[in-house]
Each structure stands twice: as structure tokens, then as C-alpha cells.
Predict the structure of Coproporphyrinogen III oxidase.
Amino acid sequence: MTGISSPDPLKFAFTVKSAPHAGRGGSHPLNLTPQQWQTWWTSPTSATQRALYIHLPFCRKRCSFCNFFENGSNPARISHYVDELSKQLYIASKTPFVQSGTFDTVYVGGGTPTDMQASEIAIIGEAIQAFPLAKDAEITLEGRINGFTHAKFNAALCSGFNRFSFGVQSFDTQVRLAAGRFDDRETLIERLQELSEHPSATIVADLIFGLPGQTMEIWQQDLQDVIQSGVHGVDLYQLIGLQGTRLSQQAEKKATNKQKQQTLAPAVDSQTRASMYAAGASLLESSNWQRLSSCHWRQDKRERSIYNSLAKSGIEILPFGAGAGGNIHGHGIMNARDLSHWHQAQSQATDTSIATDTLPSQVPGMIMSPNPSAALDSQFKAGLDSGVLALANFDTELVSHLMPLFSAWKTHGLVKISGKIMTQTLAGRFWNVNLQTGLFAYLKQNPFESCAIVAANKTP
């Protein structure tokens, strides 16, 4: 919860990053009937901000650090999926629920959405345009540089996409090869420079620090390369040891077979990753890049990172596609990943009394009850992720209730408190997810009864 006292909190306040994301319980699984599903799509939204998340669960290759690989990028399978997905988007776009409010941002993620053909990217883009979009809506296509041709870029631009997020991870050719990535350093830099010269499209790159074989020297060159590439924004993500990845499998083999130790790239420990984060923050900010969150910077104001920031604030997100997640009417939704089950749901009615041509199909997955503390938790997550928590936005009694935790963070060099503002130090930003997890654990052990209504009476 609090971290530990250390002369170097950046490296030693916690042992390791606790998880990719933080969250708190309070919901339980629900079985939604077809009638309830129909009510959802015929009732107006109560949300003031909304997003779409569209999932393309296909990749040509499984990267060493990824545990989300679902389906190989077979062209016929992608084409069939895009056809069914676009039909569902058009059906949903006409429902009273969708039409009752505008959408601020759209994110097409995966998987590798850029593995679609140019014509398929256009199909998805045009289906998105059927939704009531805000005038300046941010519409992101995620993917990789390899295979993202001029034809695909032009098809995306012409169909409404205005932001492109590429998983670079590292520019170093050898590190990329070991991680299962395509293309060498020179190819990446040249193509990113070319794309970034477009007068209006926003180009963003993701980098990962802590990859096997990625020394501090290589990481510093990665940072120089991303600046040289001309991209408008960059995410610096810490490598997390997720179960089910090729890296985790290698680590297990290393533990059981000493003879194979020399064939495995050395692990980058948490202290080195902390130094890498500090190096990244220092270089970007000294180069006049603006920090938007604990892990995201921009060098051009065209990069707004709307989806990422709003998603952390708990807005309504409509999910489409196998493996997509979001929330509708306050209910958390995670569509199941199994592609055959998703297709089966499109081809058969679950209840003949429901008109399936006027409602999107109810696909297999998990639906969770509304979390009574969701609004408050989202305020905390968004604030901590930005690096600044405005305590004045919360009930005075709640702040007093949390002050022992905040004071411990301050003592341990993770935050600074000045008046009604709590600002995270560099160490606090690096350990941001641990702070969020600690805050939720503190509230679980020390309940504050009026938490559920606090956020409703305050405007962040």
C-alpha cells in the first residue's frame, strides 16, 4: 500500500510493478436475458462522454512479450470477420441507445488491425462514420509499421481515421528480432518519418523498456530514435512478466534446466527498468515533449490521446468484436475471445421473439453488475495516472480518511502535497499502478461509507 522507506524510492519503493492495471471489486457476473439486451439498445444513455472500442483479433506473429495472441492473420478469416463486424456496427449505429449521445473517440485495436487489407480498413472506417461522432472525434487505428502500405494509409484517412498508433517496442534490430518483431531499425525510422509528415494525421509510437537484451545504452538509442522519427506522441511502457508469454515460458525452462541458461537473454530487473523510465522522462521533457500521463508524452498538440485518457476516467465504452471490452449502462462487458463462438452468435438468433436485424447480436462473454464505486475509482485512477490528484475534487472527509496513506506516500518520496494538490514525484509516476492498487486496498481495509456518492457531487 504505502511502499517502503528508501533513499532511492524510484528503484526500491516497491519490489515490482504489481499489475498492468489497477482495479477494485464491487461487481458480480450477471446473466443477461435477450429481453434485457433489447432494453439496453432501446434505452437512451445517461453518459456524458462515450467511446467505441472495436477489436480485430488477428496477428501474423506472436511477439515474445504478448499473451493476447488469438488468431493467425489468415486473409479469408479476416475478410469474413470484417464483413460480420461491419454489419453489427451498422445495426448498432441505428439503435436508440447509440443515437442518444455522441461519441468522443473510437479505438480500433487488436491484435493487429493493420493486417486488414486497404478495402477492409475502409469498410470499418465507413461503418464508424454511421455513429453520431463528435465534431472533433479522435479515431485511432492500431497496428504495426510492417505491411502498412500507402494504400492502407490512404484508405484509413479517406474513411475517417485521424490517429495511428504503432507498436514499435524497440528500434534496435537485434532486440526486435528476439522479441519476434518485423523490420529493422532503418526501415522503422524511415517509414515513421514518412507518415509523420502528413499534415493532419497523428502518428504515435509505443516503446517498451525492459525487453531482454535491451541494455541502458540500447534504450537511450531507442529514445533518440523515436525523437528522430518525428512521431507526434510516444508511450513508454514497462515490460510486465505476464503469464502465458514466450518470455514467461523461457523463464520457467530456465528455472528447471540449468543447461539452457546461457541461451536465454538476461532479464532486465526492476531497478534497471526504473532507471530506464527516468532516462526516458528526462530526455523527452528536456526535448520539450509534454507529459500527458505517467507513460505518455507528445511533441505536437495534434496528439490528444483522448481514448486513453477518457477510458481511465470511466466513460461509457461500447465494445464490438471477439475479445472486445467496455461497458454499457454502467455494466462491464468482456466479449469472449473464441472466434467461432462469436461468428455463431451472428448467424443465429438467441430468442426468436427478438428482432435480430435491429439489434446487434448478443455474443458470448462476461457481463458484470454496475460497480457502486466506479465513478469515484475512475476519478482516482485518472488523477493518479496524470500525475496530479486534485484533492479539492473529493469530499473533505474522504480526503481526511485517506490522508494517512497519502502521508506515507509523501514520507516515502512518492508524492508531494501542497494545499489541495497531490503531485507524484518521478518515483510516484513510475510506481503509479502500485499507488492505485494500494489506494484501493486501503479503501477495502478501511471502508468509507459515503464513497459511492462522493464522485457524483464533485466535478473533476
Notes: Residues 451-460 have pLDDT under 50 and may be disordered. The chain has two domains: 31-312, 374-457. The two ends are 24 Å apart (CA to CA).
